Amino acid sequence: MGRVFALRNVRIYFSKLGRMKFVSHLDLTRFMARLIKKSKIPVWYTEGFNRHIYMNFAVPLSLGFESTCEIMDIRIVDENFTNSQCLEQLNSVAAEDIKFFAVNDPVLPTKEIGYADFILSFEELKAETASKLSAFLQSDSILCEKTGKKGKVKQIDLIPKIKSFLLEDKTLNLTLVAGSEDNLNPSLVMDTFFSQTETEPIFYSVTRTAILDKKGNKFK
Amino acid sequence: MDTQQFEKLLLQVQKPGRYSGGESGSIIKDKEKVDVRFAFCFPDTYEIGMSHLGMKILYSLFNSREDIWCERVFAPWTDFEAVMRENNIPLFALESRDAIKDFDFIGFTLQYEMAYTNVLNMLDLAGLPLKSADRTSLSPLVVAGGPCVCNPEPIADFIDLFFLGEGEEVDLEIIDLYKEHKKKGSTKEEFLRAAAKIEGVYVPSLYDIEYNEDNTIKSVTPKNGAPAVISKRIIKDMDKCYYPDNFVVPYIEIVHDRVVQEVFRGCIRGCRFCQAGFIYRPVREKSSDTVNRQARALCENTGYDEISLSSLSTSDYREIEPLLNKLLGWTEKSYVSLALPSLRIDNFSDELLDKIKHIRKSGLTFAPEAGTQRLRDVINKNVTEEEILNTCRTAFEGGYTAVKLYFMLGLPTETDEDLKGIADLGQKIVNEFYSMPNKPKGKSVSVSISVSTFVPKPFTPFQFEPQITKEEIHRRQEYLKSCITTRKISLSYHDSATSSLEGVFARGDRRLGAVIELAYKNGCTFDSWTECFDDEKWKKAFEDAGVSPEFYANRLRDYSEINPWDHLDYGVTKKFLIKENETAHNEKTTPNCREKCSACGAACYGEGVCFEKR
Ligand code: SF4
Hints:
The complex is a heterodimer.
Chain A: E1 8-16, H1 25-39, E2 55-57, E3 66-76, H2 83-93, E4 98-104, E5 113-122, H3 127-137, E6 143-147, E7 153-157, E8 162-168, E9 171-177, H4 186-196, E10 204-213
Parallel strand pairs in A: 3-10
Antiparallel strand pairs in A: 1-3, 1-4, 2-3, 5-9, 5-10, 6-7, 8-9
Helix pairs in contact in A: 1-2
Chain B: H1 3-10, E1 36-42, H2 46-49, H3 53-63, E2 68-74, H4 78-86, E3 105-109, H5 116-126, E4 141-145, E5 161-163, H6 167-184, H7 188-195, E6 201-202, E7 207-211, E8 217-222, E9 230-231, E10 259-262, E11 264-265, H8 276-279, E12 284-285, H9 288-302, E13 306-310, H10 320-331, E14 337-339, H11 350-359, E15 364-369, H12 373-379, H13 385-397, E16 402-409, H14 416-434, E17 446-453, H15 470-483, E18 489-494, H16 496-506, H17 512-521, H18 535-545, H19 549-553, E19 568-569, H20 574-585
Parallel strand pairs in B: 1-2, 1-3, 3-4, 4-5, 9-19, 10-13, 13-14, 15-16, 16-17, 17-18
Antiparallel strand pairs in B: 5-6, 7-8, 11-12
Iron/sulfur cluster (SF4) is lined by residues 281-282, 593, 597-600, 602-603, 609-610 of chain B.
């Protein structure tokens, strides 16, 4: 307080792979704060009694998922500090399964996020299950119950939230609505599939591969 | 282990971050290029073990040597244990995910007695025989250190050798000796005999115990050249002692998730119930420059934004003021906060209070431990009611409204009057708040009283005392509850269910090995966790083994009796402990080490407070 800084938002792109998939979103925020501290990037701390590094994550990633496209915004207090310096300093302290691959000036605010791409890889996908899954995803509607934030159970239709899908061999590509207003988790799609079609659950891993804006372009 | 298969299993458990490894600061080496693989085992959950400073120190120290790879192992929680057993996954180390049964050393740190069944469970999960005698090859050697080693007899059947005292030097000496013997192709027996000659090493299998008809110990006889008395090791120069410049920083939240900076070892106080106050003697301090430098390096390398100063009684640190000034010189600028635990009230000056007030407004905590001056004199807790009330007043004036008080129930000579004194003290603090002319408007005061059950421990002046029975613990708890009449005071009891058992193991002998094994086989693990503790199973184990817990816990021990730990030497002499016990019963206090040396015996190490100018 008192001092006026020229704050600059920067958008950081990183991947979260391997052992990092066991790190929950909450734990990731703590981890990132420490990593940024170690990196000595001149970041902005929130005001108040308990000052902490300002960080804004675009869309939280579920525990157990990997990602090649995570996005986090921070604020820089030093006008002369460049994006490439920022990237370099982040990577100098990055952990094995977190890699930073770009730092850019944000183009759109995070509320403009509309969709996300996921790849689901099945350990094993029998032809019969695959065709059931394909038919399921092409239904006119998939009604299921979702527990909202306040614990209220409401009925929702998944179909309008599934923008597109592509089932090839043992992988399922899904483009689902994402963002702060509406968000569909691929686990919900699969759980609903298993339960509504009475299919024995099969193991699959999930990787988020892109975050898109409302027009379906890469979110920047 | 197949990574994919393993990770799939991890996703089935509550907190996969406990087992995934790969944290920042964790150390990966090429196993082909090291001579010794050490599995450092903490027999409790990841969150508790990762908070433990001793483990952090030894982990970094061992790994600072090129020829050693030390890895971490924690007790898997019951959900993951089930997954492991179902899928035949042996206990593995977090860094390499290799099975620990193929390691050279399996080292346990024994911080509390209630972890003993976890030690057995971890050996079993590793795929090893539980008993030392049944593990015949040289490796893996099962070793243990930590405070419980001051009486390791109950768990002696399962451990090959114990480290007494501080591990920084002796652990490496043993590792070096092991390397020699491994090269020579020695047997385990040959190695253990040689190991027993190193100071601070106790090989229980080299001692025969004989018992009297009344079940007390008749004699402890060393064999094969083992020493009759085993002395603990200490580090003499704390400024030269190894200290890590980085920690493994967990992803998941742990109990102490911050930089923990040690300032000194030992305690000058000599509270008569406190084992740590005796077994870590004498006090040896680090200079404020060392502390400041180490804390700063840790902050830079870990990215933590909080430091806590660690010792048994940080306000007794002679350089506390210069240290706080040095630390505050850089922490504020880098948004690092300081936490100062266990500040004692008897030298909690206005000035110091003022300084830490700027740092952080955490709760005010005091540990009077007993409710009356008489009983505080008995336990040598040199804190007066006046001091407590004065400090509270100063703190209230500084804006504090919550006070937390720690007490013990079941102390030697305790009467109902002493218990009532606890409630009275709480009430006086409440009154103190309301008597302030300029007390904060609209604010109320809260006093929380936390009461634990006293457990007599070896190497304390109360090692001779009977522990009160479970029934009596319960009666006294109820009585104390009835003494509290205001909502401003809240009362909580902790670990009373397990403290009776803790009392048995703290002063137990080797015959308890059978009880631990039976209890474990009945399904006991994680006994310090209320959701896991099962008193009935323990009762049955005692019955089946034909061992009476009362014999160990509830009996007054004669000064002349041979205790199971009497062949271990922690510096303080039995003569001193007897004298202190008598002084306690005379309701007299003993000055602290800085006021006057009481010749406890710890000066034998030639270092520390014993040689300070008074
Ligand atoms: S010898 Fe004296 S100064 Fe040293 S620890 Fe014992 S009582 Fe304290």
